[in-house]
Amino acid sequence: MKNNWDFLKKFTHARIALGRVGNAIPTKELLNFRLAHSRARDSVWTELDEMKLNGPFISTQSQCVSKKEFLLNPDKGRELDSNSRQKLEKLAKETPALDCLLLIADGLSAEALHTNANSFVEIFTAELKKTGLKMGPVILGRYARVALGDEVGEIFKARSVVMLIGERPGLASSQSLSVYFTYEPSKGKTDANRNCISNIHSQGISPLGAAQMSVYLLQQALTKHLSGVGLKVEYPNEYQRILTP
Amino acid sequence: MAAFKNLGEMLAKASPFRSGDVLAGVAAESEKERVAAQIALAEVPLKDFFRFPLIPYEKDEVTRVICDSWDERAFQPVSHLTVGDFREYLLDTRTTESEISALAPGLLPEMVAAVSKLMRNQDLIAVAQKARVVTRFRSTVGKKGHLSIRLQPNHPTDDVKAITAAILDGLSYGCGDAVIGINPATDSLERMIELQKLLSHLIESLSIPTQSCVLGHVTHQLEAIKRGSPVDLVFQSVAGTEITNQSFGVNYQLLCEAREAALDLKRGGDQVMYFETGQGSCLSAQGHHGLDQQTLEARAYGFARVFRPFLVNTVVGFIGPEYLYDGKQILRAGLEDHFCGKMLGLPMGCDVCYTNHAEADQDDMDSLMTLLGVAGCNYFMGVPGADDIMLNYQSTSFHDACYVRDVLGLRPSPEFEAWLEKIKSEKEGLLKAASQLLPGNK
Questions:
Q1: Which of A50, A108, B189, B202 is 20 to 30 A distant from A76 in Cα terms?
Q2: Residues 205-244 of A with CB under 8 A from B
Q3: Domain presence at residue B435
Q4: Claim to verify: residue B282 and residue B398 sit in the same structural domain
Q5: Of A224-228, B70-74, B87-91, minimum mean pLDDT range
């Protein structure tokens, strides 16, 4: 049966103009949905593979020892295990004052990190270099939640932390990353202290665009001495274009 | 009571099993202890919840808002009852709808949470069905025999054409009568204003009796209002403790300010707030004060009601398996939240949903949606194909809305239904509008 609404599909990859049988979706769409769900479910359990990341980076792990523990204990995912903490404390002593620390972490999708982190890190590092701001070594976090960045930032006494982390997989994409940005990171900071750029993947905001936006955000925050809900971000026109691919 | 240190502990241990309470370390340690707590709770006089606030008045703004807005006179009809008696009073067929509605301002969230912990799922449905809450902006939501839908056309880059296409698709299934509400992907103020203008334009040009909302942070919405952007409903996530609200960057004063600003625009009605909540948010923000997540959720409703919201919904499975592990826990929580919200006088809807790391699937959503439809839930979400491509979770779809309205004999909001009839009577109606709004692509 021809669907008169089909032309709408070219504007979005959302599940629109699916057609209907009675009140339900056609069998083909029903099975498409189940297939996408099965993929997303499987990707939740994908382990971080450091070989898929370009580096260099310093590897760390949260207090979780397995994916299952990570999924059920968010608290443990917010704190470093003792080996990682010692490693970073030692490194911090040898590191001069930092404007920014970049953390990359698996979060709920290691697959997202494997696919999109390399280009983000490369561009972010290059863009930041142009501004003259000092960035520390890239830290990699396994079984990490967003707030792990607070502890790591605190150890280095960094002026800010940029956390690139795998989002929970959706049906349309299991390769989506988010950037969480915190000014003067320290343990106990809350979401109200952070800014976020989400949906970084091939059908969302490109890793390139997100890296440029992150550097802009960082500069704004360092000038205004804050991050979070108090920081009203007004991206100039060139960044608006990033949002409209 | 001897076996339990205080009311908070008793409530937590009486709560049906869920992962978030285990994570917080407040759950009963055995099934036997859970039932012992329920037996003890049944004997607690309702009055005790006023005499012993679970979080001290001096320490928590939410407690203050709840206590200061409590209407003692409305409480009188049930002031002599225990929690166990209260359950029986609510279920008694002689207790009328108007008696239950009149109680709402006299009930504290903790009383309502307590009685829900003694109730079976069918009790939560039977009583909620008697507690209708009707609100009005351009459409009327919550009337008996009606079910509304929030059209949720989110897109990962907030692309205006993509969002327009999803809205038109949703309208064609009769969705959008609760609100057309977009969660923006970024915190860009300009983009938020652009989306507000888009929604306002669509609603006006097609004369749709509905309202719009762009669900950014409340401070952004305030700023947008100051810049003259067309804002119908003001949205904010709220929770049951001051610490958690702080982590959301909000407090009572700020919400009052936002409400006043939206009222000043006089765009439709005097119910202008839209709140979302969900069990587990307090633990997630480390602001739970040793209480269980369902009691804290009810406190969020006690806080929300002073703002006379147009819409409130729990986003029941959104937060993840650390708090609600599987389909069974999500289903129970959805029924509890709807019941507690309605008992406290809120126009309660539900985002029936789950994430991909939870042990749940669309079958579980079918069950919860159908049960909540029977319970008289004000509205559900309408997401294209149930798959939110921006927030990365699964909710309920436009098709699901058609299904649940059909099997339960429920209709859209009256004004919206009349508009749908009118559109259908016109040649090509909505389809023609669609090809005009998104031209050159037929």
A1: A50
A2: 205, 228-230, 232-235, 240, 243-244
A3: no
A4: yes
A5: A224-228
Is residue B62 within 8 A of residue B245, CB to CB? The reply is: yes
Which residue do the tokens 């700023």 mark? Answer: B223
Q: List the single residue in A17, A72, A198 with the smallest CB-CB distance to B322.
A: A72
End-to-end CA distance of chain A: 33
Place of tokens 């912990």: B117
CA distance B81 to chain A (A): 39
CATH architecture of A50-243: 3-Layer(aba) Sandwich (3.40)
Tell me the two tokens of residue A86.
């010692």
Q: How far is B270 from chain A, CA to nearest CA, in Å?
A: 27
- How confident is the prediction for chain B on average, in pLDDT? 96
In a domain, B1, yes or no: no
Show the beta-strand stretches assigned E in A30-90: 58-61
Q: Would you call B385 and A33 a contact, using CB atoms and an 8 Å cutoff?
A: yes
Which residue out of B157, B183, B193 would a mutagenesis test of the A interface target, given it has the greatest number of A Cβ atoms within 10 Å? B157
Q: Report which secondary-structure segment, H or E, holds A155.
A: helix A148-156
For the question of an ipTM over 0.90, the answer is: yes
pLDDT of A238: 63
| Exposure string over B49-87, b if 16+ CB within 10 A, otherwise e | bbeebbbeeeebbbbbbbeeeeeeebbeebeebbbbbbb
> Inter-chain contact A11–B438, Cβ cutoff 8 Å?
yes
Indicate whether A227 pLDDT > 70. Answer: yes
Question: Residue A78 carries which side chain, given as an amino acid letter?
Answer: R
* Whether B355 and A168 lie within 8 Å, measured CB to CB: yes
B193 and B124 part of one domain: no
- Please indicate, yes or no, whether residues B63 and B113 belong to a single structural domain of this protein: yes
Substitution target from B21, B173, B221, B357 for chain A, most A beta carbons within 10 A? B357
Going by C-alpha positions, the residue among A160, A116, A69, A53 that lies closest to residue A152 is A160
pLDDT of residue B292: 98
Q: With contacts defined as CB-CB under 8 Å, which chain B residues touch A37?
A: 356, 361-362, 394
The residue of chain A with its CA nearest to that of B193 is A234
Dump the DSSP string for B380-426.
Answer: EEEBGGGEETTTTEE--BHHHHHHHHHHHT-B--HHHHHHHHHHHHS
Q: Closest by alpha carbon to A182, among A117, A228, A144, A135?
A: A228
Q: Residue B437: what pLDDT?
A: 87
